[in-house]
Every structure is written in structure tokens, then in C-alpha cells.
Amino acid sequence: MKTSVQTGNRYNQLTDNALIPLALSGQQEAFTVLVRRHDRLLRFVLQRYLTDPDAVQEVINDTFIRAFRGLSAFRGDSKFSTWLCKIATSQAITRLRTRRYATWESLDDAVPGWQDDAHYNELPLERQETGQLLRKAVRQLHPNDAIALELFYFREQSIEEMRQITGWSVTNIKSRLFRARQRLQDILAKEGYQAAHFA
Q1: pLDDT tens-digit profile of 124-147?
Q2: pTM for the full predicted model
């Protein structure tokens, strides 16, 4: 037992780059330390995209499985934590594309005119109906265009961050955002609502 604890402490003192070859050589405890070390970071990053705790945990588990299987391909060009986050965000984007875990509730907080102040004191039912209208409109967009809106406006990701997460080119991202804004405004205009937030 004492030997096991001593071994664990030894692994804990090693850097990521020192642990990786040990994990590749079959020393499971080395990879376990990597998991414990970066679990919290992945959880923090994923909570920016997914609000369902079960979904976050599933993506974390899937990320470490993928990292373990692809560990031999890690070249160290970036930090191990950066590599993990890229895998995790890629999986989160995939889930958002399927719409099962998309947090459309963020729309309620993003559009001006919904603040609970004296000027915009809407009834709960009216606010709920407006939110439903926006969610219905967004669901009519192409999935990738909806993701572009979600990341840029509601997750406040920069164009460069979106490029790293999605793999899309800067030109492609700008094109998607422009197209999504125009399409969303057209859809809402037909319903008698103007989305000035996306202008």
C-alpha cells in the first residue's frame, strides 16, 4: 500500500510531457494523473457550451477516451491541456449541431428589450412566447449557421476562437454569420418581430 502511494506521489510530481511517454508505455497510473489534473479545466471549458451536467460529464469521458486512443499522435506542438480542450470543444460542437443539448435559453438573456426594468416590464407569459418565437426561428436556420450565431453572440467567442473550435476559415465564419443574421431577421419579420440585436 505504501509503495502504491509513493508511486502515485511520484507521478503527481511529473509534468504532462513526462507523464505522456509513461502512459504510452502502459503505466496506467500516469494517464490517471493526467485525467485528474485536467478534469476541472475541461469541465470549466465545456460549461461554456453545454448546460446539462450529464452532457458535460459524457463529453469529458469521451474526451479522455479519445485522448488515450490518440495519445501517440500528440506531438507536443501545443500544451497537452490545449490539445485536450480542442478535442472537448469539438465534441461539444457536435452535440450542439444535433440540437439535443443546445442551450436556446441563452437567447432570452441576449436580446435587448427583455430586461426586467421599468421600460421593458413584460409579463412572464409574453416573455415566454417571445422566447419560443426566437427558438423556433433559430431552428429554421441551417445547423452550422445556428452554431455560428450561438458561438458568436451567446457564447461571445471571437472569430479566431470560432476558427479554432470549428475548423472553419475566417471567411467562412463571417459568411455564415452574415447569412444567419439575414435569414433570422427575415424569419422574425414575417412574424412581426424585429431582432435588432443581430443587425
Answers
A1: 545 556 666 777 777 788 877 887
A2: 0.55
Q: What digits encode the pLDDT tens for the residues 138-183? A: 778 887 788 788 778 776 778 887 887 777 899 999 999 999 888 8
Give the whole-angstrom CA distance, residue 154 versus residue 110.
7
Other C-beta atoms within 10 Å of 80: how many? 19
Burial of 66 per CB tally in 10 Å (0-12, 13-18, 19+): middle
> Does residue 170 contact residue 189 with C-beta atoms inside 8 Å?
no
The contacts of residue 38 (CB under 8 Å, 6+ apart) are 80, 81, 84
From CA 49, how far away is CA 51, in angstroms rounded?
Answer: 7
57 CA to centre of own chain: 13
Residue 32 cell numbers, joined: 490517471
Output DSSP code: residue 115: S
Identify which of 31, 94, 88, 96 has the alpha carbon closest to the alpha carbon of residue 63. 88
